[in-house]
Specification:
About 20% of the residues lie in helices and about 25% in strands. By secondary structure, the chain is of the alpha+beta class. It folds into two domains: about 45-260, 2-Layer Sandwich (Gyrase A, domain 2); about 265-335, Aminomethyltransferase beta-barrel domains (Elongation Factor Tu (Ef-tu), domain 3). Residues about 1-20 and about 25-30 have low confidence and may be disordered.
Length: about 350
């Protein structure tokens, strides 16, 4: 990284062999402005005939720049993943979360290495970005870290195939660090030519539906801040948690739940069986036939599909019974176990 910055200062250009690259050819050890120029000129545009879709996520996601000589150590103490892997070039992007002291979810973020020795960019929930900035400022104390809103300079994009098993890798677009089925995700400078959005009239909606079909929630808008247990929202399977790094805020509950294997409910996709049924809304409870106890709760809905937190025993257990929404005789739903789930998930009950 230092050599890259020195070469840039001396000649204004960068040799092609300098620095490491991600699996999709994006450099992860270039000086910041060189990285920005590389993105503008090297991100491959979407071919008009491609089955892929480019979705601009700027309505729901914003970008922060965090920099300063303490930035990686600072984030290491308050996030669930290990940002030092960005600093040493092991990773170019990672998914992580911030918890409260009780181990409950507060915010998530995609952290991107830009090649700055002490800087990175964060893709975060736009609606809750002011709360996140206040939280980071509260934890910062005397750490040498600067936090900036750079939504005016950068945007968030996803590039994907609506069929999750048909994703491919295009130059300049890092793979989504959560699941390969989600395609690629990038922070790009404003004005970058992505070559159109593809053959879908609602690209951001198509991306949201893909996520929901895989049972992947995103941000405090879908993961209730202050109450959600990270493992119940599958963050352990989405590469958001390091179980080998040092201590961080909220670690005790996460580690105990993980190592004891005591996850009794998880987020999963569902479909409404009765096409004529209506009124399925977020927050509604689910009930198994013959049981007065709620089996789960709807988290999001999109037409006849959605995501819900459901007890694993009720969804996949040996005594599995039909599930209804809203009331014991409400619309019948079918819960689905995503193909990416580890084999042992669904057996913890």
């Amino acid at each position: 990284m230092i050599l890259a910055a020195a070469f840039k200062a001396r000649s204004g250009t960068l040799p092609s062999l300098l620095g490491s690259t991600s699996s999709c050819g994006q450099p992860v050890s270039l000086a910041s402005e060189a990285w920005r120029r590389w993105l503008v000129t090297n991100v491959s545009a979407l071919d008009a005939s491609s089955s892929q879709i480019c979705a601009n996520l700027n309505e729901s996601r914003g970008v922060l720049r965090l920099h300063g000589e303490d930035v990686h150590q600072f984030l290491n103490g308050i996030t669930t993943n290990d940002p030092k892997l960005l600093q040493n070039g092991t990773k170019d992007v990672m998914y992580t979360a911030l918890l409260n002291s009780q181990g409950r979810f507060m915010h998530d973020a995609f952290l991107y290495a830009t090649g700055e020795p002490f800087g990175l960019l964060a893709d975060v929930d736009k609606k809750h970005m002011p709360d996140l900035m206040r939280m980071l400022t509260r934890y910062k104390l005397r750490a040498k870290v600067t936090i900036e809103d750079v939504c005016g300079d950068y945007g968030v994009w996803a590039r994907f195939n609506p069929s999750p098993d048909q994703q491919d890798c295009q130059r300049g677009w890092p793979q989504d660090p959560r699941l390969k089925e989600l395609g690629q995700r990038a922070i790009l400078p404003r004005g970058t030519d992505v070559g159109g959005t593809g053959q879908d009239g609602d690209p951001s909606g198509a991306y949201r539906r893909l996520r929901h079909s895989l049972g992947v929630a995103e941000g405090p808008s879908e993961i209730p801040p202050g109450s959600a247990v990270p493992l119940e929202y599958n963050l352990d399977g989405l590469n958001a948690i390091s179980f080998s790094k040092g201590c961080y805020v909220g670690q005790e509950l996460v580690a105990r739940t993980h190592f004891q294997g005591m996850v009794r409910k998880r987020l999963m996709p569902f479909t409404v069986q009765d096409e004529a049924a209506g009124g399925v809304e977020a927050g509604m409870s689910m009930y198994a036939d013959g049981s007065p106890r709620a089996a789960g709760k709807v988290v999001t809905t999109d037409g006849q599909a959605g995501m819900a937190i459901i007890r694993l025993e009720a969804a996949f257990g040996p005594k599995q019974r039909p599930l209804h929404v809203g009331q014991k005789a409400g619309p019948l739903i079918s819960a689905h176990k995503p193909s990416w789930w580890p084999e042992q998930w669904g057996q913890e009950q």
